[in-house]
Design goal:
233 residues, alpha/beta, 7-stranded parallel sheet, 9 helices, globular, binds adenosine monophosphate
């Protein structure tokens, strides 16, 4: 099945061939049509299944459909558990948004806050944030979430494991009730189901994860490396 059959426009599909995406993965084939209809989604999907494009492409499609690259306030929000994942997701969204003028930024701890404030002031469409740093910006009133139209909670189970439920509750109380919410998690525990009940409305449930702990497309290797070389490696 080609990507066009999922309801994505040619503009959104245009960068995919260069990225080597010929056909949608399972989670993409199931998530994208539901999300394009405006439905909330609760998906069980692991790293390596193509989950980033599964939530990224419908987000890009929705935000690029109206005047974009012009608004000052962000309209898309992606929450992830760690700084490393935020950087990876931002990179992926940047590549996937090549057919549009959408601007993507990361809002993560471990780096100075002022450059993030300046990027926000210049205007941005999608913010990829870790909960802690987003709360810092909310406390400083440097971000306003009232313009957010679509939220993704990626690796929601890890966010809960890391104790981020209170900040997530605060963030989700500040985005408009009318927003669309996509929640992705490697596991669907009782806690995740409860969070989904609180944060999503009548979500389409998608379950593509195989029974193994790790997706079959992922190979694990261990590299011993000093902390300061970790990201470069
Ligand atoms: P993710 O699960 O989002 O971390 O994606 C895992 C890897 O699969 C990434 O390297 C993606 O670039 C790649 N990928 C995602 N979707 C597709 C697709 N439809 N075809 C080929 N590769 C893909």
């Amino acid at each position: 099945m080609p990507f066009a059959a999922l309801g994505l426009s040619p503009r959104t599909i245009s960068p995919l061939a260069r990225l080597g995406y010929e056909t949608p993965t399972d989670v993409q084939a199931q998530t994208i049509p539901a999300a394009l209809q405006g439905r909330d989604v609760l998906a069980r999907a692991q790293t390596g299944t193509g989950k980033t494009a599964a939530f990224g492409l419908p987000m890009i499609e929705r935000l690029a459909a109206v005047a974009h690259g012009q608004s000052i306030a962000p309209r898309g929000l992606v929450l992830v558990p760690t700084r490393e994942l935020a950087l990876q997701v931002k990179e992926a969204l940047f590549e996937l948004a090549q057919g549009t003028r959408l601007r993507v930024m990361t809002m993560v701890g471990g780096e100075p806050i002022m450059p993030q404030v300046r990027t926000l002031r210049r205007g941005v469409d999608i913010v990829v944030a870790t909960p802690g740093r987003l709360i810092d910006h909310l406390d400083r009133k440097t971000i306003d979430l009232r313009t957010i139209e679509i939220v993704t909670l990626d690796e929601a189970d890890r966010m809960l494991d890391m104790g981020f439920l209170p900040p997530l509750k605060r963030v989700m109380s500040l985005v408009p009730a009318s927003r669309q919410t996509l929640l992705l998690s490697a596991t669907l525990s009782k806690e995740i189901i409860a969070a989904a009940r609180a944060f999503t409305k009548d979500p389409v449930r998608i379950d593509v994860a195989p029974e193994h702990v790790v997706a079959s497309t992922v190979v694990h290797r261990v590299f011993a490396v000093p902390q300061e070389h970790k990201r470069d490696l």
